[in-house]
Design a protein that fits this description.
By secondary structure, the chain is an alpha/beta fold. The protein is 36% helix and 21% strand. Helix 7 (240-254) packs across helix 8 and helix 10 runs parallel beside helix 11 (371-379).
Amino acid sequence: MPMRTRLLGLAFASADLLIELNAQGGVVFALGSGPHADLPSERLIGLSLPGILTDASAEALRAALADLSPGRRTTPLEIHLVCGEHRVRRATARLFQLPDLAPNISCAIQYEGAPYRVSNVDSSPVLTPVALLERARQVLTDPADARPLAVAFVDVEGLEAAAASGEAGERLVARVEAAIQSASLDGASAGRLGAERFAMLKDRVDQTDLVGEVRELGRSEGIELSPRASEAAIEHGGEPLNALRALRFAVEGCLADGGLEKPEMSFQASLTRTLREADAFRAVVRTRDFELHYQPIVTLSTGAVHHFEALARFKATSGPANTIRMAEELALIDGFDLAVAEKALGRLRRPGAGLMKFAVNVSGASLADDRYVEALLRMTASRPEDRKRLMVEVTESAALAELDAANRRISALRAAGIKVCIDDFGAGAASYDYLRALSVDAVKIDGRFVQNLDDNPRSQTMIAHLVGMCADLKVETIAEMIETQTVADILLNLGVDHGQGWLFGKAEAEPRTTLPSAEPTRRLGEVVGWA
């Protein structure tokens, strides 16, 4: 594989380390930062990745490798890398296998903090928040497990200072983590949320004095700790999604940095709010009580309007991004994606729409089965000519788990005449994987690479390489969040095809084909074809 391709893979994966594994887990290529100073990335080549993990992590990795097939990617996998005697480092690994690389497997690794001391590298360290949520999902959806459960929040004031105080402090941190993990459900359901904050699933009837135990651990090492704990009940049965969502709020909201004095109260408030917002969202989808605003996307070489992106706008919400994220987490997004397409098609069919073309967003979660594609094709069956005026932008806010199945669905849309675009390219870990595995017509470059492009040669280089690769694949490029003519000119010189941003116009309730401009010769206001 060309080095440029691998570099792009690392850049767009947002990973600390990119490695390529053979079918047995051996490292055949490595680029980036090694897990610790004595094991830089170049020394990983020839080693077995399971061989430098704790026993539990190695077992989980082997299971993930065995389950992987060409065109598929795994969900984020928590691993613990061994960094010497009594030291491990938490990380998140994402595995994916491109058909043209099989049987080799690409692996992007992102570190979760620095190496830390443990009493035994093969013991069960506390989990990351992501792994804790996955553990909660397993417990709460197990029909055979009906124990009364709670989520407990543990703050250990003084632990961060202890960790920096030397060997005794590191030993104390390991002992505190072990005590909290041991007190959690089945001894394997505690997660670390920050330097001094933990959350854990526990049996409600368990009356272990964890606060007293942690305080005594500190005194035994000559270090004063001030632990405190609180808990809130969670329930089995009904819709397990509700409990999982509440736990997510508890982990990511209630105990955010600078968090709350009484997280158990916030936990219950989060549950109530989430249920209320879920009901409200279902009503919005059912009644179509939302609006679409249309933002122009222009051809950079001529300034002509090429098409419009249809963007949802909700009444009395914290913003469309938060509402969409909630809908994805609650598995409500597929119905909403179809409602957006329905509204966009209705506007296309109104008198005076001319040759306007619209792009609508679809979550990766909606492409998890055939329902979205089948419904969209039914929606356009009576007027198949409308399909040529429609583009679907696949967002990565909810990742595509099985790329071969997703590509089959995308191919069905393209065969019917509907264009497909990968949205926010570069924003997530799987962007490069998507481009290699999915047959699409365009990619939209994430705005973080575009903003302040005139002062960022690194971003310019990355975009130039992406444009070259897309040209080879006959895939068009769209840059978003363009705010100045200088940035637009740079993108044009780099070979980007189309642009979107406030320079050309904000999203408005009615699509505007004639754009205000100080340079009328650059922006003709003419709607042109896809090609």
